[in-house]
Design brief:
Layout lengths: L16 H12 L2 H72 L5 H14 L3 E7 L5 E6 L19 H12 L3 E3 L12 E9 L2 E10 L1 H8 L2 H6 E6 L5 E3 L12 H4 L3 E6 L3 E10 L5 H41 L1 H6 L7 E5 L5 E4 L1 H7 L3 H4 L14 H12 L8 E6 L5 E12 L5 E10 L1 H22 L3 E7 L7 E2 L1 H7 L4 H10 L30 E7 L4 E11 L5 E9 L1 H28 L1 H28 L4 H29 L7 E3 L1 H18 L3 E6 L6 E3 L1 H22 L7 E11 L2 E10 L6 H5 L16 H11 L3 E9 L2 E12 L3 H13 L7
Parallel strand pairs: 21-23
Antiparallel strand pairs: 1-2, 1-5, 3-4, 4-5, 6-7, 6-9, 8-9, 10-11, 10-14, 12-13, 13-14, 15-16, 15-19, 17-18, 18-19, 20-22, 23-24, 24-26, 25-26
Length: 850
């Protein structure tokens, strides 16, 4: 025992006011009333327990219903997105057919073949019909499931009705139009219609009518996991069921939440409010669960009442035992002599009347020598008499400190030790104060440990205050700041706002995972592993108020009082971030300059390429002018010449547009890119320069290559630079025409266990010297007298920024160098990149044909 508690009997002035009032009220009651209150206490506890259980049951039920509603809403919106994407995919395919019809690239037989292919591939497509501008059906193909009343025969004219109205709306708007015809009772289920207008040279040329089975759209467009959990239906604008089977109200439902199914509905875009997706959660029986909880609560209440009654009976027996306990008081007082705490008793005049064995052992004097002494006592140090006399007067006057006081005690051999004394009134058997009881504990060792801890804390504080990083500690779920060093106080003051701001901006706590379990734990937002393990999380954030970039590191720890706390260390990394941003800007400028230099070197070839369509345009115009002046041109010949002139102008515009897209300065834009299309753009752009050097270009691209995550402009820049360098190497080597070729190959490969796309550019030049190969990709190293030495360095930087690699090697025929091969590879897009690109595509607004 470190201390001796005060006596149970204290003066009325020392008792707090509420406790004193309760004690006075309780003593004013008769023993009979006290027994009645003691008997009613268990019953009151049982009622309070029942009320708490019922309130908790209703609260948990409300929370469960709310979670079910949120899960239903999330699943319905996911299903609506899937149905919407399916409609948009079919719309894009129908629009391709309409575009080909508008361009007169499809005949009737080809149209029927493509329609048949789409209908056989996609079960929701029931019929595809070609209708001309007069409303006459040119061609149509329908699925076998379409009824005879819904078939459209070639040569018929649209009858007045909703299909004809939608035809007129598509003609007026020149945009795809969805319609939901209504069917009379007894007829087959109506089909969802999409009419895509045909436009030939700005004139309306009819529509392509596609009809969808709403039931198949629901069956194949809605995810299977949603269909398994909910009763999913498609409704029209008048709330009529078009597909699916809704849940009927539960007959004989007695509880409010069992009368109606939990449902949620949302319009299906792009159809709009004319097609609504509704899902109703399948109801589960709550009778067994509810009854089980009710009987469990009832059983617990009965058991609690029985336990409380048993406690009351035990209290009665305890009161009987208390009377016997008074007889044992003298025995328990005798036991104090065996305590390790020193006990001393003083009378009202301050004379020692009792000391126990522990007190004598601490001081070194015997009981006979100490009992009867008056101040100054023999164990008082000589130099502290005045102070100890003042404290003794405070003790005798009742002004002793509740927490005790510390003093120095002298042993018989003259040594000193630190002790803590607790003083309490000494009351005799008649309830009258007979003196003061003092307990003394040796605290020399605790004081020594406390001084060492204080010195260690000061050293620790000095180190933390001198750090060039902000350090703060705060408990979880509280706004109290447990610790903050000098730099934190300099940045954020002495409040916890800065700590919370760093935690919020850095996103230190991981996001809670949706495990699908209905009964969620309140601590699900915390990490699942040990919080106080040696684990930290880093993030870089920008604080506008400070104008600084900070690297924030955090970890969880157990504070000295046992609470779970979070330590945040913020380091100023503004100079590093500024240097990184400046380096990125310099690299971007270098890439733009490289593209401009490349196009500058290709200027003459580009001018030659543009001269051909411009010369053709001039010749066509001159010929038309001369024939018009002589009156020897017909309208058909004039239209043919104008069409050829427009084609040459479009060709010139495409050349200029491609060059402009290549050389313009833009931010890096990595996205899912088609390798074949990217290579085709680069080949068409580089072919101009290769023809100028009289170099033949051959390229091979493997079929069905997967997509890569890349910036197409930057990769095209790499390919153009490599092909142009190959052509220049061939020109400098003066190869004969039969050996002047550059070959580009794009094939899939595996590098270090990773699936990649390999790009190879191979020329027939004179190759590279060994000393050139050693410094080939270094900045400002060039073998050209007019070169800057940045082309290949930028190419390698671009490839490595796409997580790829580039290398070069000479080609040999025996000992003779026959050319050079540059190879680089790019990794395939992973599932996360593909998902992000799909989501971005699905959320974008679909284009419509004007």
């Amino acid at each position: 025992m470190d201390s001796h508690p005060p006596s149970a009997e204290q003066p009325e002035s020392a008792v707090p006011t509420p406790a004193r009032w309760w004690r006075t009220w309780w003593r004013s009651l008769s023993p009979h009333r006290q027994d009645r209150f003691a008997a009613l206490a268990p019953l009151a506890a049982v009622l309070m327990f029942l009320a708490a259980i019922i309130a908790a049951f209703w609260y948990l039920r409300a929370e469960e219903v709310e979670r079910e509603k949120e899960a239903l809403k999330r699943d319905v919106e996911y299903a609506q997105q899937r149905v919407r994407l399916r409609l948009l995919e079919r719309q894009e395919q129908i629009m391709r057919i309409a575009r080909d019809l508008s361009n007169q690239d499809l005949e009737r037989a080809d149209f029927v073949a493509r329609a048949e292919g789409l209908i056989s591939q996609y079960p929701e497509l029931q019929a595809i019909t070609w209708i001309d501008e007069r409303g006459r059906i040119r061609a149509s193909h329908a699925a076998p499931t379409v009824t005879s009343g819904q078939l459209r025969v070639a040569g018929e004219v649209l009858k007045a009705g909703e299909t004809a109205d939608t035809f007129g709306l598509a003609r007026d708007l020149q945009q795809p139009v969805y319609a939901q015809p209504t069917g009379s009772s007894g007829e087959a289920a109506p089909l969802l219609q999409l009419q895509v207008p045909l436009s030939s040279q700005g004139k309306f040329g009819g529509v392509v009518l596609s009809e969808y089975s709403i039931d198949s759209l629901l069956r194949y467009g809605t995810p299977t996991e949603v269909l398994a959990r909910y009763a999913v239906t498609l409704l029209d604008g008048n709330d009529h069921v078009l597909a699916g089977t809704p849940l009927a109200p539960r007959p004989g439902a007695r509880l409010p939440w069992t009368a109606k199914a939990n449902g949620y509905e949302v319009p299906v875009s792009p159809v709009g409010n004319g097609l609504v997706l509704r899902a109703q959660a399948y109801r589960t029986s709550l009778g067994v669960v509810g009854s089980g909880l009710f009987w469990l609560v009832g059983t617990l209440s009965v058991m609690t009442a029985w336990l409380l009654i048993a406690t009351w009976r035990h209290t009665r027996r305890r009161m009987q035992a208390q009377q016997a306990l008074v007889a044992e008081t003298n025995f328990r007082r005798a036991m104090e002599n065996s305590m390790l705490t020193g006990m001393r008793a003083l009378d009202m005049e301050g004379r020692i009347t009792y000391v126990n064995a522990a007190f004598c052992q601490m001081t070194g004097w015997t009981e006979a020598e100490l009992v009867g002494q008056t101040p100054p006592f023999s164990y008082w140090p000589e130099g502290e008499y005045e102070t100890l006399h003042a404290r003794l007067r405070d003790e005798l006057s009742g002004r002793a400190m509740i927490g005790g006081f510390q003093m120095r005690v002298k042993r018989r051999n003259g040594t000193l030790f630190d002790a803590r004394l607790y003083v309490s009134p000494l009351v005799d058997a008649r309830g009258q104060q007979a003196g003061w009881m003092t307990s003394m504990t040796d605290i020399t060792e605790p004081n020594r440990v406390r001084e060492q801890l204080t010195a260690s804390h000061e050293r620790f504080t000095i180190v933390l205050e001198a750090l060039d990083a902000s350090v703060s500690v705060a408990p979880l779920g509280s706004e109290e700041l447990l610790f903050a060093n000098r730099l934190y106080r300099q940045w954020f003051g002495s409040q916890t706002n800065g700590h919370l701001q760093l935690v919020a901006q850095a996103g230190v706590l991981p996001a809670p995972r949706d495990s699908g379990v209905e009964d969620e734990d309140g601590l699900m937002g915390l990490p699942t592993d040990t919080l106080t393990s040696a684990r930290s999380e880093n993030a870089e954030i920008y604080l506008p108020d400070l104008g600084k970039w900070l690297e924030v590191r955090s970890r969880y720890l157990n504070w000295v009082d046992g609470r779970l706390a979070q330590m945040v260390i913020a380091t100023d990394i503004t100079p590093r971030r500024l240097a990184e941003e400046q380096a990125a800007r310099q690299a971007e400028r270098a890439q733009s300059v490289s593209r401009l230099i490349t196009m500058g070197e290709m200027a003459s070839s580009v001018a030659h390429e543009l001269n051909q369509p411009l010369t053709a345009i001039s010749n066509y115009c001159s010929g038309m002018v001369s024939r018009i002046e002589s009156g020897q041109i017909t309208q058909d010949a004039l239209l043919s010449a104008l069409s050829k002139t427009a084609h040459q102008a479009q060709r010139a515009g495409q050349i200029i547009q491609r060059i402009r897209a290549f050389v313009k300065r833009s931010e890096p834009n990595r996205q899912l890119a088609d390798v074949a299309g990217m290579v085709a753009e680069a080949v068409e752009l580089a072919d101009i320069e290769l023809r100028r050097h009289n170099v033949r270009l051959t390229h091979y691209v493997a079929a069905r290559l997967p997509k890569v995550m890349a910036d197409t402009i930057l990769i095209e820049q790499v390919l153009v630079n490599l092909m142009k360098n190959g052509a220049e190497s061939i020109a400098h080597a003066h190869r004969p025409p039969a050996h002047r070729s550059v070959e580009l190959r794009v094939v899939p490969r595996q590098v270090d266990g990773r699936d990649v796309i390999e790009f190879t550019v191979q020329d027939t030049g004179k190759g590279l010297a060994p000393e050139v190969l050693a410094h080939l990709f270094e900045a400002f190293f060039s073998t050209k007298s007019e070169g800057m030495g940045m082309g290949l360095n930028l190419c390698r930087s671009i490839v490595e920024s796409h997580q790829g690699r580039m290398h070069a090697e000479n080609l040999y025929n025996g000992t003779e160098v026959t050319g050079c091969r540059f190879t680089f590879w790019l990794p395939l897009a992973d599932a996360a990149d593909a998902t992000m690109n799909t989501v971005a595509t699905s959320t974008s607004t679909p284009r419509t044909t004007a």
